[in-house]
Each structure stands twice: as C-alpha cells, then as structure tokens.
Amino acid sequence: MEIKDNKSFYSFLESISTEEESTIFRGVKSKSYKLTPGIGRFKTNKGKEFSIYEEKTILKLFKQKAYPYLKIDNSNELELLALAQHHGLPTRLLDWTWNPLVAFYFAVEEDWKDFDSNDKSAVYIWRKDYKGQLDPDFDPFKIKRINLFLPNHVTERITAQSGLFSVHANPNSEFKSKNISIVEINPNYRGDLKKLLQKLGIHRGNLFPDVDGIAMYTKWLRTNIY
Among 184, 28, 7, which Cα is nearest to 110's? Predict the structure, then answer.
C-alpha cells in the first residue's frame, strides 16, 4: 500500500483500527533501510563486524563517559542499552512504537535533499506473535532468538514515543518475518504528512520533551526549513 495524500493516510489508519494490541510499528526515512540493528550497520575502528566483546566494550565506554550526565547508577544492561540507543549509540536494539502516528513521523521527519526517485519512506508493521517483557531480566548478549522488552522509561523520550525495543540475537543480520509488512509513503506527500501530524500533536516538541526538542520544533514552525 502507498500513502500519497490525506485520504489514503486516513484510510490506512481506519484499516488498522481493529488491529490486535500486539501490532507495533517502525518508521524509516527510506524503504531501503532494512531491519538491521545499528550495531550491525557499523564496523569497528578496525573495519570488522562487531563481536559481542566489542559490543560490551562500547557500552562500557558509554556508561563510563556518560556517568556525570545521566542517572545510570543501578541500570542493568538492558536499561543501559535502551538509554544508549536513544542517545545515538549503535546497539543490538531496534526501536518500535505502539503508536502508528509516531512511526509515520519518524519516516518523514528529516528532509531528503538527495532523494532517489525510485525510493520512498516507509513504515514497517509487525504483527508480532509473542509478547514483550515488562520486567526483563534476560542477558541481551546470550539470547538465542529475538526478545522484546518495554523499558522502565529511563528517559522521557521513550515514554512520549510509546516506545519498546526488539533485542536481536544476531544483530549483524537483517531481521525478516512473515508477520512483517510495509506501507510506503509517496515522496511528494512527505511534507504535507509532517504538517498533518503536527496538527494531530505528533511533532518533535512532544516526542522529544526537552529543551533541544522544543528548540527544533520552534525552528521548524517559524523558519523555512523542511
């Protein structure tokens, strides 16, 4: 399905209004962005794939250097991974949301100056067949299959974005499932959809409830940036 105008957007929302509570969403700027966790999209500073040892090392470095700024004294590895993920560190997590509007926002949030006419933004829809853990205690580096967990809202952003995470046993490989579908967004509609979502209360000021988020939202409102 392709979302190309307000009519098709509202039609899509109506079509998923009866979805099971287990359905979750992930918005991506380009449909070419596969479901590969961040750590699997980077190489080490020696040009190799990240091993578990190197994953743990980068997480330890984050905790050590972020300690003065973040409340992470008693965070377990899962909470620490979630916190690191939301501050831009590549991890074996993928972000998902219960809210399809949030997913659409992240699909169209950024300008696309070097747009490929054959490409489109997209939203992944995962009708998952197992539940996430509310109080997870598993070791993210020893799992044999994908696990889901709902963070203890270590940041206001996770709460605002209705967020949850998938934790990948093999983060260097693309995640595929028969329960995942994708809806595409026509590139000519990206800007109008972003404006519509703002009217629906889905914008950076609300999804990133901090000074940076408010500043970026105000900039978007009052300047000519995308």
Answer: 28
| Band (155; pLDDT cuts 50, 70, 90) | low
Token pair, residue 152, equals 């203890």
Mean pLDDT for the stretch of residues 140-148? 92
Pair of tokens at residue 16: 């998923």
Name the 3-class secondary structure at 192: helix
The two most distant CA atoms of the chain are separated, in Å, by 50
Q: Is the pLDDT of residue 53 over 80?
A: yes
d(CA 129, CA 224): 44
At residue 9, the pLDDT reads 95
Query: With 90 as the cut, is the pLDDT of residue 36 above it?
Result: yes
Distance (Å) of CA 11 to CA 6, 16, 97, 101, 123: 8, 9, 20, 13, 15
With 70 as the cut, is the pLDDT of residue 158 above it? no
- Per-residue pLDDT at 217: 66
Do the strands 180-185 and 147-149 form a parallel or antiparallel pair, or are they unpaired? unpaired
Buried-state track 185-198, b at ≥16 Cβ within 10 A, e below 16: bebebbeebbebbb
Helix (H, G, I), strand (E, B) or coil at 142: coil
What are the structural domain ranges in the chain? 2-33+93-222
* Helix-, strand-, coil-residue percentages of the chain, each rounded to 5: 35, 15, 50
